[in-house]
Amino acid sequence: MDYIAEGVLQALSLLLAGDEETWDAIFTTMKLSSLSIAVSLALGIPLGFLLGYAEFPGKRICRAVVDTLLALPTVVVGLLVYAFVSRRGPLGELGLLFTLPGVAIGQVILALPVVVAMTATAVESLDRRLSLTLLTLGAGRSQLALASLLESRYGVLLAAASAYGRIISEVGVSMMIGGNIKWHTRTITTAITLETGKGEFALGVALGLVLLLVAFLVNGSASLLRRRVRT
């Protein structure tokens, strides 16, 4: 157990001393996850609201597909995106392989079903008396839709927190599409995998502590949002 305690102490030393390699992986992760969650929310909230609010042919099938995609393995997503962005793929000319935008594409694919499904659930869970009351007061369709979205805001925020947690903790897409290139595409998860395999336990623990802190913050926010949704 001594080497674990020593690893934790060395990890804290690396973080407090501002080790460049450690903090570069942290900043790269934050930049990448921010880009991915922004795109996921921009696409997922309107789609989720439409899925939960509107009635259209094939809605049950669409919902079943979205729910199924929640269990997408990260390595499978990485493999599919790699096939498209590699030199021989249809998007090879864009030069997305081994870049942060390329990794972001895979992370958006992972996060989008989470945002869509949970947003749709939040909208479907609204009290039906809300729409009846608004219609009685003379609200139009656009006003009714906007009011429904505002009422489901805590559920939408919960979807965002859950999607962010899935993005920041994944390793398959980041490793396969980003290539774990030092000072360029190395993230917290890929750095932990590499450095621990090399025997650099302290660096792995340092990055693990940061990832654990982010996970606690995300899960804590999600718990608070769940309470607000229930009340």
What's the quick description here?
The protein is mostly helical. The chain contains 11 helices and no strands.
CATH class: Mainly Alpha
Overall helicity: over 70%
Class from secondary-structure proportions: mainly alpha
Number of strands: 0
Strand content: under 5%
Write the CATH homologous superfamily.
Answer: MetI-like
**Tell me, what's the shape?**
globular
What does this structure look like?
The protein is mainly α and about 230 residues long. It has a single domain (about 1-230), classed as MetI-like fold (Orthogonal Bundle), CATH 1.10.3720. Helices cover about 80% and strands about 0% of the residues. The protein is built from 11 helices and no strands. It has helices at about 1-15, 20-55, 60-70, 75-85, 100-125, 130-135, 140-150, 155-170, 170-180, 190-200, 200-230. Helix 2 (about 20-55) crosses helix 8 and helix 5 runs antiparallel to helix 9 (about 170-180). It is globular and about 65 Å long. The relative contact order is 0.16.
